[in-house]
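This week, study the protein below.
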Amino acid sequence: SVSNGLIAIKFGSFTYATTEKVRRSAYSCLDAQFYDDETVTVVLKDTVGREGRDRLLVQLPLSSVYNSEDASEYQFTGAYSTRLDEQCSAIPTRTMHFEKHWRLLESMKAQYVAGNGFRKVSCVLSSNLRHVRVFEMDIDDEWELDESSDEEEEASNKPVKIKEEVLSESEVENQQASAAASAPEIVIKVEKLDPELDS
């Protein structure tokens, strides 16, 4: 427990295991939520990334950010009466590099996240509030949502995608324009998140 601790996190690089390529970019945090007592789930936006491939879902273990041995190095020396954005140089910063525990959120303008460590899921909501993706973050062998699809997916050794159909942003806009009187449709996608496959 630290009474005067404050650490800024700079997201350095994410390693794409399939290509052994390290991708460097600049990231801004769109939303963050505690997944459990020891982990924060974060939605990041790559400020120079390609449209449709610029959002990331990251599980940030607090133990990798701060430990008691670093306490003196990461003491906040600024004034609590002054806004933090006016004293950036006084905030200790740690750069984090990730090889796993992250996922590229393709074809979705992810904006918000909610996590539940007890249920082992994280939900990502799009910026237009019409797309929801539910990720199973840490799967126990006994806990399966859809037994029939799980057996087929285990045979193919791919991550389980409970619902395949997700409307793209343009499809939703076209659908909304053609059916303005009807209620908007919300699409939910549930996936198993395997850090070894997705990192």
